[in-house]
Amino acid sequence: MRNLIMALGLxxxxxxxxxxxxxxxxxxxxNPAYAKWGMLAIxxxxxxxxxxxxxxxxxxxxxxxxxxxxxxxxxxLKEDRHEFGVFVNITFNTETGKFLKINFQExxx
Length: 109
Description:
The protein is an alpha+beta fold. The protein is built from three helices and four strands, in the order αααββββ. The N and C termini lie far apart (47 Å).
């Protein structure tokens, strides 16, 4: 078994092209459209809950109503031994991208 592992290691070192790693196109390397709002959600959540650590982050989705868009996130926080979720909704002008408001709603699930 040990010889097999060593042989595979030597083979991979001699022929690295056997491992296919696709090249990413520039479009795949860009941040998603909601990234700037996600960073704002994290920043504002840290301000609102300064003693808690953000341990998880989820972009729930977005909703456009007329000239405004709401980006929705769920963050999971831990403060001491207490864990809880916070839904963060960020509303902005769809056309200009201007921030309008932010809402927080705590949840236990």
